[in-house]
Amino acid sequence: MNIDLLLTGGQVVDGTGAPVRVADVGVTAGRISYLGPSIPGASAAETVDCAGLAVAPGFIDIHTHSDLTVLAEPGADSAVLQGVTTQVVGNCGFSPFPANDARRDLLEDHVGGIGGERVPIAWTDLDGYDAALTERPPAINVVPLVGHGALRIAAMADPYRDASPVEVATMVTLLRRCLEQGAAGMSTGLTYPPSALADPGEIGTLAATCAAAGRMYATHARGLAGNEAGAIDEAIAVARETGVRLEYSHLALNNPANWGHAADSLRRFESAAAAGLAVGFDVYPYDASSSSAVQYLPYWVQEGGSDAIAQHAVDPAWRSAALAAIGEGFFGGIAWQWERIVLSAAPGAGEIVGRSFAEIADLWRVSPEQVLLDLCAEYGSSAQVVLHYRTEQDMQAFLAHPLSVVGSDGLARPRILAADHPHPRSYGTFPRVLGRYVRELGLLDLPAAVHKMTGAPAERLGLTDRGRIAEGHVADLVLFDPQVVTDRASFAEPCLPPDGVLRTIVAGRTVMAGGTVGDDRPGRLVRCGNR
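-> structure tokens emitted (531 positions)
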């Protein structure tokens, strides 16, 4: 047997949820060519002794915002150091395609709200985005979703209003083309303009287009006034009415008034699944979220993007009205707790990065509302925040549930970010699940946890040759020590790499070994369907 890479004697966790077993794994031409007992006298170009180590499919991060960071930083250090081999981009309504030349600047500003280094969008569709990835290939694979916000910007001269029937039809045409080019589905960001301006009819029409193509619908659901229950009901209604496969993004309870009511949210998903709907959700193992500061402004303040905010902020009347509206809370009425909100990035902001808005307000001798508005006016969507508005209890309930999978909601980033203070999820999500919630707390057993990070997301995405260790599957693999693996990244030191992840393999090629990210870049865009 001709074997390029032979992993011997490892504890194989195959991604299906089946019990761990000791076996050898052989890789030939980028695919798994052998899985079974030790082969007497077998030789390979490279052999790795995996005794005492877990051998698992490479982790599939079903929810990321690495759309442009994989171009700016193709080494994807923060991902491969965790054992991630595939990331899904285009979430929460943000994607760098389709693009309309007339509103390219607005799309670039919109996509800039997901964080990371800015990259000019020099293409118009998914094929063009793929060409950019091919020219500068990443270490990891990329699965694309089509962002609903991008569809609105491409189809509407003014995306911050109701869409006309003609404009919805244009969105359908653009979406259908992206699906034909291999997109895995569509995402919405229903707390983020312009996606938030869509009515149920518009969303249903687009979701039906995904259903007809056999693709998924991922939604960052509405969070107005913290109405998490209503947001779940709306998302499930879309699945019921269209038959689309639903992925509910980063399930959480962000309104302090709803903390401790995870069971109510879970009952809604359980009822939908019992009725035969294809529903599920993803979760990341932290009690804090992160996004652009602009996204917490009232919708009318956000209209026109960052440039418009900067222009309006010098108008005393507009500014006074904006500050009054901000003072009423975010997402339609969630009360501000300024000490829980931390500025995580603002290029050139210096010492205030890493401080809470309460601390910055004291430093500047202004109100926290003024801090928020002034940061948005000066830095636009580049100003990023971390919100400590969740509870560990609720998160654990979601993570342990059978309908959940793991997604970081982070970005593929370089190993060191001297100027930023990002959420640690970009550096620690998957080892944190394995270390804290499997080994230390026993919330999940190892096969179940790995299934949530490999086989289950692959099934939801329609990836038939990834997410499992099986002969013929793509050899995306990770080796880790189950007795050691853990996250080191924290909110105080968010860019620290994990411990215990020893090797990350993409298409049979090692991209990280012993904590060192190599120069090999075997990743590619993974298209769904016939492409």
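The mean pLDDT is 95.
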